[in-house]
Structures are given as structure tokens and as C-alpha cells.
């Protein structure tokens, strides 16, 4: 039907049939329509696709034109084209045999792969193979079809085609960059940068899954290198010999689940159900996924409405099935509220899971000590301070009260686009502490650990360590111009919170910038709330920021440099050394702009941070550079640029 001179080989939902060294003969499957590959200097025709009907073969042809044809223009010779096609065919043969994604449930295939892995790469006997995939490794413009092996400490590739052997061994801790990319030649691939050398892997039928596992293994390797204690606390990582593909996948899903919903690190994703949720304020059903853990029922929409809700099991009082016909269930929570889910495929299982957990996580009420029940520090001096923005504050409060009446208030509130819009406009001071606790997830930490802070305060009272010495030194440097910290009341509260946290987490203890952050938290939150907000920031929202190495901040600075290259190319052209911005932005990241902005503006940044995380700080940093781009470009040296940025912020 068609003779194609320059086309690739593909496999789309089992319709395209690839084969190697197949010449048109009587032994081939007979089909009235075929797509063939042929080059002018060859007498061989390659069967690329076949179809029973004209419509079927036209469908294949259209897909080839739209997806593949543009790639082949980069090849200079017919040999390269043929080699490329052969590589594709070999890969598709492997995929046809369903060997590209090897499941751990198939011990025979995994054992064979393990023997090949040990034979080809001769790594230490204790090296644990996690999984392997069929893929192409690109050397120049021509791919080598082979196998990618992922182990606990190495990523390896092996190929043997037409007498040419390609062997690659890369240690995870040597990788400089790991990312998914696409270009003219490769529609989608994984890019690995090692010591300035680029490596590209493509033809992965499960590219996203492969990338997640590679990312985890690389991340774990660095954690083992820098932080053995934290690594050993991870159940999935404590014994490298027990790391499995299934365990990595489950750990990645749970980590993503906890990060998105801001849940405690003890929570693991147990069940996922696709369903519709009735959104009362919009009067429609939104499609999304129900995510269930030991202590939380969460929902996130998938249809672009940006709606999600978090329900602690301690708030659930009943689960009802109003109508079994549409596979629906209603979750009743405290405050006379109910969430109505419909079209849940396994609604009976979900209902039973919720019922079995809703009574477990309920926490008894705890009467905190007088130390921990103190009002937020700002209320102690606010009576003496006449707020010039009183009218504006009342307008903000009114907007938020309307929002609460429509979307709910407290832990079961709906998070929507309107929530973010209100945060950008400004959070009223009277609600700031409450909303910080809610957005950060600290409200759940405090509710599930009654009396914990009081006990820490008592246990840490009178202790003398290097951390407490550093805390005493920095107490009077924390917002010294603010009235709240010009008396012993504010200083004592700050001392208790910082000392209690140092006692809780001796690995971090106390780090500079923690005093500045905590002092701002105390302005708008009660003492115990400020403690749990500090826990949320240090251990969940900004991990590895507040330690001796500040690895987390350094990583985000590298991300910041990449964002500058991507979004501010004009600045990059005129200032080739971007490390300057890293040194300037370090205080931005560590103190969330508190140390460089007036307190009235800084708290608005903290509002956005607690809702959007570090993304808000990165966006603000880019905005600062973009606004001052003209002045920065005209600078003669770094000192002048520092002066410009300091004057601006």
C-alpha cells in the first residue's frame, strides 16, 4: 500500500506489528495493506505495519506522519536510518513479549535478569538489583537498544548489537542532573548528566514510572551519604538489601500524598478510589480521587477545579450509604457537615475502611498547662497599638467569613482557587495564626499529640547544651525593634519554643534563622501552635534547611539558578556568573524574606508560603530580579548589584 523510505517503527495499542529481518515472503502474515521501510541503496523491504482494512492502515500512516517523520530528518545516511529502525524493532520485539516492565511477582524472569546483571557488570555481591527495563541508549544520533538495570547504588546499561558491545555503569551519587526531556530527535527521554557528560535513555514504555524509581534511588544514595540517621529512620530504606521496586513505588506514592495534603510523616497511602464529590458551594459534582491513610480521608479533584479537602478520621462521626444504586456514600463530620461521594467503584470497601478507622484516631481533649495556653504574643501589645489599617482588616475578615460560610472552616474546609485568591489579597491578623496552622498541617500534629509540648517544656527546662547556649545568644536579636520582644514575656516564650524544639530534635538542635522565623510565628499563634508550626516548617515543608550543612537551601538555590536561566534569559546573557544570586538569596530562603522585608510585608510572604510551600519563595525571588533587571544588567560588579537588591527589599 505504501513504500516508506524514511520512517520509524512504533507500536500503538497492539495494532502496529514490528519484526526484524523480515523480507516479503510467503511465511509472513498475509495482510491486504502494509507499510514498508525501504532505502534507495538497499534491496530489503522492512514490514512496519499491516492492516486488514484501508481505514486501519491509514490510521497507522497518519500516526507515523504526526509523530515520527519529523525525527528522521536529522539522520545523514541511510545506514543510520536503518540502524535506528533496527534498534526500534528490537525494542518493540521486547515490548511485544512484555519484558520491558518486569514485575517482581515473576521470580523466574527476575532471576534471569539478575544473572545477566551479575555477569555483565561484575559489581559487589551485595549489590541489590531493584528492577530493569528495555530501552535505547543514545550515542550520538544513533540509539543502542539494550537493557537498563537499576540497583541500590548503580544504574547500568548493556547492549550488544551487530558485534558492538556497549556497557555503562553510573553510581547514583555521581549524577549531577536527572530529568525528563524531549527534543527533535527524542520525543520523550530521560537525561542523566554525570561529570559534564550527557546520557539519554528513550524507548521506555513506562517512562514516568522509570523516572520516579531512578529519582528515588538517586535521592536515597545522597541521603545515605549525608544523613545516615535520617536514612535509617525510613522504613523503606533502612536495609538496602530489602529495597524493592514495589516498596519504592509505594514509598513514592505515600510521600507525594503526604506532601500534597501536608500530612504527618507517619501517614502512608493505603487506598485510592476514583469518585465524584458533590461541591455544595458550586452545586456540581467534581471528578477526583479519594486517598485514604491510617488517620485521614482526603480528596483532590482532577478536572481543573483545584478543589481538595482533608478530613481527619477523628472528625468523622458516621458513614452512610444513601443509595446503593449509584455506588454512593456520605461521610458525616463534626460541625453538621457531610461529604457526598458518588460513583465509587468499591464503595463498600471504602465505607468499611472509614468505619474501622474513624474511632481510632480520636484524641482525648487535653488541658494544656498555663505556659502553653498563653495567647499569641501580638495580643499582649496590640491593645497599645492603634492599627491604621483597621478598616482594611475588617474588610478582609468579612471576605474570609463569607468564604468560611461557603467552603467550611477548620480541618474539613474546601481548598479552592478562591482560597488562594484571598491569601494573595491578604490574611487578616486575627485569622493568620488559625490559617497558618491549617495550611501547614500543624493543626493535625497538635491535635494528635496532646500534652506533647508541655512535656517537652518541662523536660528541657534547665538543660544546658550547645543549642541552648546559641539560643540564649540569639534571643535578643529576634525582631529587636518589635514591641512584643522588648519585654521578658515575648523573650521567654521564644526561649521555650526554641529550647523545646532543640530537645525534640537534637539532630538539628538550633540553627540560625530559626529564631527569626519563630518570633514571627509567636506574633500570630499561641505558644504551642508556634511550636508545631516550627515543626511543620523544619521537618516537612523545608526539610534539610535548618542543619549545619543547609543542604535543602543549597538545593533550592540550584533550582533558583535554573529558573533564572529559564525565565530571565536577558539577565543570564549579561551576568554569566549566577552563583552571585545564590549567595544573595540564601537569607531569602532561610528566613522566608523576613530578614529583608518590613514585618508588615514579610508576613504576607509567610501567608503564601504556608499555602504554596517553597514555590511561593521561588516565585517572589524571580519577581524581585525581574523588577530590577534593568538596574542589575547595568551593574559593574557584584557589590553594586547587592546594593541595588538590598535597597529594593
Automatic annotation (TrEMBL):
Query: Tell me, which GO biological process terms does this entry list?
Result: glomerular filtration
> Where, subcellularly, is it found?
Cytoplasm, Cytosol
Q: Does the keyword Cytoplasm apply?
A: yes
Question: Rab-GAP TBC domain spans which residues?
Answer: 426-613
Query: Is Isomerase tagged as a keyword?
Result: no
Q: Name one GO cellular component term.
A: cytosol
For this protein, the record's InterPro entries field holds: GRAM, PH-like_dom_sf, Rab-GAP-TBC_dom, Rab-GAP_TBC_sf
Q: What's this protein's name? A: TBC1 domain family member 8B
State which gene encodes it.
tbc1d8b
